[in-house]
Amino acid sequence: MADAGGKPVIGVIGGSGLYEIDGLTNTRWETVESPFGPPSDQLLFGDLDGQPMVFLPRHGRGHRVPPSGLNFRANIDALKRAGVTEILSVSAVGSLNADLPPGMFVIVDQFIDRTFAREKSFFSEGLVAHVSMAHPTCGRLGDAVEEACRELEIPHQRGGTYLVMEGPQFSTRAESELYRAWGCDVIGMTNMPEAKLAREAEMCYCTVAMVTDYDCWHPDHDHVTVDAIIKVLMDNADKGRSLVKAVAPRLSDRAAACEKGCHEALTTALITHPDARDPSLVAKLDAVAGRMLG
Ligand SMILES: CSC[C@H]1O[C@H](OP(=O)(O)O)[C@H](O)[C@@H]1O
Ligand SMILES: Nc1ncnc2[nH]cnc12
């Protein structure tokens, strides 16, 4: 359990290309068990310039787990159990927008969820909840990421819509054009239901998306391949790691409670009458919804 003495604890979910954190001291990999099953890997606990940090490689060390095989519920539940209050999600994405070339970082603020083969909620029969997803990312965490991008002179865009596809195959040209017509900026396979579950678990969540390719719509660029993605990621890995290092201290002088309301998302969400709740589900939700379930 990471303890920041009432201050925010940052958890980094590292996507493709971000498998470690620079400058982390007092590190230890620990197994965190979750009633929702095994997370992608052990969690790496450490300190970054005195700020407690927890790191989870989204696809596991060695990139073993495909997007549809990720146990998103276990990942978020384990981070919550570890004491994390704010999640910085780092992701590789394709660009759907001519103004977002490879190498650009996008501080995502909206999602369109087109996934269909994933467990999307901690809640189910026996305890029903409906949280708001109107603003799926945390503006306070987004401010910290934006300040860090500016300081490091990383080319970035504040705001953007991330289309989440099921994968694992990349999109067809017709799909890519459709998502562009919808006004989407970037495309990836992992941030949903991650963001929904972070909201249900009352944690701040913000995505920094690193553009690696133009998917398959751009007339002047080849369609995306893993090789091309890895090449851009290697060129940008240092920037991604420096960004995480620069975000962490920006949180340390803040109150743990997020003024955007992320830590109170369940206050108005539970609808099942206390007498009608399933005790076994209530027990499973001890970390995610303990604040509301007592
Ligand atoms: C490496 S190819 C595509 C892979 O990369 C992205 O994952 P992440 O968000 O974890 O960086 C994308 O969504 C695919 O899963
Ligand atoms: N074009 C793309 N489509 C889906 N996921 C991606 N991750 C990186 N580039 C991608």
Textual characterization of the structure:
This protein is an alpha/beta fold. The chain has a single domain, classed as Nucleoside phosphorylase domain (Rossmann fold). 27% of the residues lie in helices and 21% in strands. It has 7 helices and 11 strands. Strands 1, 2, 3, 4, 5, 6, 7, 8, 9, 10 and 11 form an 11-stranded mixed beta sheet that branches. A hairpin with a 2-residue loop joins strand 3 and strand 4. Helix 2 packs across helix 5. The longest helix has 27 residues. The radius of gyration is 18 Å and the shape is globular. The two termini are 20 Å apart. The model has no long low-confidence stretch (mean pLDDT 95). The structure holds the ligand CSC[C@H]1O[C@H](OP(=O)(O)O)[C@H](O)[C@@H]1O and adenine. The site of adenine (ADE) has 12 residues, from strand 5, strand 10 and strand 11.
